[in-house]
Amino acid sequence: MDLCDNSIHAEGAHSLSEALRVNTSLTSLKLCRNSIGNEGAKFLSEALRVNTSLTSLDLYGNSIDNEGENFLSEALRVNTSLTLDMFGNSIHDESSFPI
Hints:
By secondary structure, the protein is mainly alpha-helical.
């Protein structure tokens, strides 16, 4: 599902995270350039811990920095089937993001 450039912000990421918690069919989600920020990343990371169907999440250009990256990194430790694109965010070299 492509939801790029929809001004979703953190509030929309919260709503999407609620849907992802119960999702059993969506496998790919593009959220490029939606300004979800660290708060939105936190909401999504909580849902990704329990979601078992999503295999690809594109978060390109969402104003996420190391704080948001840490939330998502923790979710990836639990959800090992997910591929995450974080290009175009403000993550610095000391990141703990799995390569």
